[in-house]
Amino acid sequence: MKIAVVGTGYVGLVTGTCFAETGNTVTCVDIDQEKVKKLQNGKITIYEPGLEQLFERNIKQERLFFTTNLAEGIKDAKIIFLALPTPPGEDGSADLKYILKVASDLGPILSDYTVIIDKSTVPVGTADKVRDRIAANAKVEFDVVSNPEFLREGVAVEDFMKPDRVVIGTNSPRARKIMEALYAPYVRQGNPIIFMDERSAELTKYAANSFLATKITFMNEIANLCELVGADVDSVRRGVGTDSRIGKRFLFPGIGYGGSCFPKDVQALAKSASDVKYDFRILNAVMDVNEDQKTRLIERIKTHFKGNLKGKTIAFWGLSFKPHTDDIREAPSLYNIEALLSEGVTIRAHDPEAIENVKRIVGDKIGYFDTPYDAAEGADAIFIATEWPEFRTPDFEKLSGLLKSKVIFDGRNLYDLSNMKELGYTYFSIGREVIN
Ligand code: NAD
């Protein structure tokens, strides 16, 4: 099938590449000329494990193309995906200007029956708006389908190639048949394609992300309570997670959720609810708790250094919002860096993939280092913001020789408490005993 993907960011590039991988011919369209130029030259623009190999193979086999020209990109395409940004607007609702602009542009240039698919995360009712925009100028038949994306950055290729489920919102039998054929190679193991109406599909994505954000936030509150009552959140987590109704995943406490999806999607769902006069109280609480959780370790750092952080140096391990990605959108690291800088702390940062993206925002206000050990040299403490695997078993002996004082503030609970005690570290983590 000939497919166009409009918007070539994290979702668009993975979507385009993975559809090319099963034999479709895909053209990815983006207005960012620099990005498209790079992609046309065979240079990948994001870090996503496993993607580069597929990207290179499909370009070589002439199934994957890039352009800045929408009309050229959609020429002969039977299917057009919209993988465009839906950032929060001023009132917290999802800003649809990118989607609606492309929808308006598409109307006059469609030349045959086409299925236009919202892959972006969009509020209930967006498919109707997209349909109206296209219909205003279209001379041919078309269908608008809602097909929200559930991939996780860091394992996006795996998620796309073998999704837990595919959700498709459409009432059109014609579009349904095309969507079924398109996704058939990805659900061969029997995972379901769940068909529903467009509104339900749109809401499903927000419900999923908001539920996951709520689950993390609930565990963060349990962790905070553990600290006050002398319980251990790791034990509690194992105790509750083995209940199959609760499940083991998404129960790890930390310094709050971040990323390009959870914060904006929770906010947008709360706003959608309030638009129809429904006060979604849980979500308001989730947002409040998460806001505080992001900088929870800062109070501990201040107390440890007796309120005087001026002149201290902190090695900052991890900048991306989670491991295996270079994405730093809404990363808790950025909030902590800002808080520490405002206290006069010198920051020496290391991240395996995200340094270039952080440099664009934070610039030379902090130092950047190639290894976690280089970052630790001469530091008064280490702050761990992201659970990259390489931080899990560092050479503590080497580290002890580099640090000015053996203190770790761990926002991701990476280390065993008894081990830290044995090694003689002062160790603060989330929801667990302080080792001093
Ligand atoms: P992104 O910012 O990485 O990519 C969006 C791309 O769209 C950018 O490259 C931008 O230049 C391009 N663009 C903007 N206007 C355009 C136009 N008029 N024509 C062509 N291209 C245009 O965003 P993303 O992370 O890929 O997210 C896209 C959507 O998918 C959002 O709604 C997001 O909520 C949703 N989503 C994201 C993830 C994720 O993990 N990132 C997962 C599931 C769903």
UniProtKB/TrEMBL annotation:
Keywords: NAD, Oxidoreductase
Record carries keyword Transcription regulation: no
UniProt binding sites for substrate: F150, L151, R152, E153, K205, F250, L251, F252, P253, G254, G258, K322
GO MF: NAD binding; UDP-glucose 6-dehydrogenase activity
UDP-glucose/GDP-mannose dehydrogenase C-terminal domain residues: 315-417
Residues reported to bind NAD(+): D30, K35, T86, T121, E153, K264, R329
Keyword Transport: no
Annotated EC: 1.1.1.22
Record pathway: Nucleotide-sugar biosynthesis; UDP-alpha-D-glucuronate biosynthesis; UDP-alpha-D-glucuronate from UDP-alpha-D-glucose: step 1/1
Reactions catalysed: UDP-alpha-D-glucose + 2 NAD(+) + H2O = UDP-alpha-D-glucuronate + 2 NADH + 3 H(+)
Similarity comment: Belongs to the UDP-glucose/GDP-mannose dehydrogenase family.
Protein name: UDP-glucose 6-dehydrogenase
Lineage: Bacteria, Pseudomonadati, Bacteroidota, Cytophagia, Cytophagales
